[in-house]
Write a structure and sequence with these properties.
The strands form five sheets. The chain has a seven-stranded mixed sheet, with helices on both faces. Strands 10-2-1-14-20 form a five-stranded parallel sheet, covered by helices on one side. A three-stranded antiparallel sheet has the order 5-9-6. The chain is 34% helix and 20% strand. The protein is an alpha/beta fold and 536 residues long. The protein has three domains: 182 residues, FAD/NAD(P)-binding domain (3-Layer(bba) Sandwich); 129 residues, no CATH class; 121 residues, Polyamine Oxidase, Chain A, domain 2 (Alpha-Beta Complex), CATH 3.90.660. The protein binds flavin-adenine dinucleotide.
Length: 536
């Protein structure tokens, strides 16, 4: 445990005086309203409750978790989020966060020595290992002519592998001394970060002579618009076995944090869509919900979609040039569609993540064509299906406007389009896994319209801001200019998004609110819960 973070083995800390203050807690500041019960909202709520502050989460939907969700279909759980969770290495800062939130204790952590298998159109295969020595060997096996570049890439990844966020305090609360100490911690990585951050991944891979390795590096980075630093970080973080799948997936993960929030005394009000934040004399004083309910608060934290929060709930009144620039011109993670299949057999020898080429491009809207498919394979150990069965998911970037418009204007064509894509994907998989089609018990497709309907994420983005050279490393403040008693958390305030960023940003906001009310922040590790059943 780090710095002044206090951990206790009890759950009902809410009644205790915060450790380290030496004085009783200040008078009760009153209720804090949190908009959105995704991972950021739940995290923020848990930490505020741990510190004796009373919170209520207002969630537009019917369930906790936001994008971190799954849907049950017959004997299968189709996971709509978790593929790899950062923070599964007990020495990591995010592991501490997950432990405090009760998110992973008692669940099996499933990590693989082979992170991903990438196949080429001419029969090439690259097996991406977690271990960096093996990465080096595998890359050089595929592309001996690029050995010098591979050495430099692996060296950079090794340097960045220990990168950890500070937990003691968010930057906003750090003293000069703490900032210096944090800076010193990052010093060994700084040359790598500075050298790689501004480099577009496409320019970087163009240096490689081997065509297949160029293609594979782009697959590993995930998006052609990314900074090359993302590739370095992915390789570095995976090498520490600090990323893995957690048995039970997103559903169990979100339920565990929601359970923790409830046991800490937090309340979630479902079907409570906030339409505006009430502002008096430049202080946020509450919210108004779609059903007309008006609620007052000492502080409002929005963990809902950033665009809706700033430009709808607050009418764009509290913005500056930086915020406008961010929302007008920075790239987002794309909208996606997800095809999930329930298979009544085991896919022996199939890697858990397989990226394969498609012989003729797959069309997923009126303009987007894909020439590769990434397939996730989950066996019963994932607790997403019973023994003897398999869940397969395929996710593909697509155009948000296309799907939303089609659903609204021509529901029949929307359904036909979905059926056609499922059919095409099954045909591709049948080609790669002969006989698979005969074992499909259930097929399901979620489009950007589905993701937006359930979570309201702007333009259907599945993770907020894309870490391009332009934005990676940029600080996005969790307060708005000119507005007091108001904070934002979640993947719209951290370039790169993801579950760890969402949870950490919620923790940071809780730290800021504690500081505002003169409380020393304390975080508590609960007693682990023993989960007895495999399937959630
Ligand atoms: C397919 C997919 C795969 C992913 N894979 C991974 C992965 O493997 N690893 C990883 O780390 N991350 C992954 N992510 C990203 C991760 O899920 C998100 O970055 C993270 O869950 C964001 O959490 P959040 O709390 O910031 O936002 P959200 O999950 O969007 O939560 C916001 C909540 O606010 C609610 N809300 C919105 N508007 C209102 C309103 N007006 N009033 C009240 N409530 C409102 C929404 O209903 C929602 O519950 C994936 C995402 C997707 C979609």
């Amino acid at each position: 445990m780090t710095g002044d973070v206090t951990t206790m083995g009890v759950e009902d800390y809410a009644r205790a005086t915060p450790a380290g203050t030496g004085t009783a807690a200040p008078a009760d500041p009153g209720k804090i309203l949190i908009i959105g019960g995704g991972i950021a909202g739940l995290s923020c709520g848990c930490y505020l409750q741990m510190n004796g502050l009373q919170t209520e989460i207002l969630e537009a939907g019917l369930l906790p978790g936001g994008l971190c969700t799954a849907w049950h279909r017959g004997p299968y759980v189709f996971d709509g989020c978790l593929r790899w969770l950062l923070g599964t290495d007990p020495s990591s800062a995010f592991y501490q966060v997950w432990t405090e939130l009760g998110a992973i204790a008692g669940r099996e952590i499933i990590s693989h020595d082979e992170v991903m298998r990438i196949e080429g159109s001419n029969g090439e295969v690259l097996s991406l290992p977690a271990d960096l020595d093996e990465v080096s060997r595998e890359f050089k096996r595929v592309a001996p002519e690029d050995a010098a570049l591979i050495d430099r890439l692996v060296r950079a990844a090794r340097r960045c592998a220990p990168l950890e966020p500070p937990l003691e305090n968010p930057l906003e609360l750090m003293t000069h001394f703490e900032k210096m100490k944090t800076g010193l911690r990052y010093l060994p990585m700084l040359p790598v970060i500075l050298r790689w951050k501004g480099l577009p991944i496409t320019s970087y891979v163009a240096r490689y002579r081997n065509r297949f390795l160029r293609e594979a590096l782009l697959v590993i980075a995930g998006d052609k618009r990314m900074s090359a630093l993302v590739l370095v970080m992915v390789l570095g973080l995976k090498s520490r076995k600090n990323t893995a799948f957690v048995s039970g997936g997103s559903w169990a993960f979100a339920q565990a944090i929601a359970g923790r929030y409830g046991r800490l005394g937090g309340i979630v009000r479902y079907k409570a869509r906030v339409v505006s934040v009430t502002v008096e004399n430049n202080h946020a004083t509450g919210v108004q919900c779609a059903d007309g309910t008006v609620l007052r608060a000492s502080t409002v934290v929005s963990c809902a979609d950033g665009h809706t929060t700033i430009f709808k709930m607050l009418n764009g009144r509290f913005v500056d040039k930086k915020i406008l620039n961010l929302y007008q011109s920075c790239d987002l993670f794309p909208a996606i569609l997800q095809v999930s299949l329930g298979i009544d057999t085991i896919l022996a020898n199939a890697p858990h993540t397989l990226n394969l080429p498609i012989s003729s491009p797959l069309s997923v809207d009126d303009t987007t064509r894909h020439d590769r498919l990434e397939v996730e394979v989950f066996g019963s150990e994932s607790a997403l299906c019973p023994e003897g069965k398999t869940v397969i998911t395929v996710r593909l970037p697509t155009l948000y406007e296309f799907w939303v418009r089609l659903k609204k204007e021509d529901p029949q064509r929307y359904r036909a389009y979905k059926r056609r894509i499922v059919k095409d994907i099954i045909a591709i998989l049948e080609h790669r896994f002969p006989g698979l089609a005969g074992h499909i018990e259930l097929a399901d497709i979620a489009t950007p319209a589905t993701f937006v309907r359930y979570t309201g994420n702007w333009q259907g983005s599945y993770e907020g801001w894309l870490p391009t050279p332009r934005i990676l490393g940029r600080r996005i403040p969790s307060t708005l200019p000119g507005l007091k008693d108001f904070y934002m958390a979640g993947h719209w305030v951290v370039a790169g998004g993801g579950l760890p960023s969402a949870a950490l940003s919620g923790r940071y906001v809780a730290q800021m609110i504690c500081a505002r009310y003169g409380r020393t922040f304390a975080a508590i590790v609960p007693e682990p819960i023993q989960y007895t059943t495999g399937m959630p």
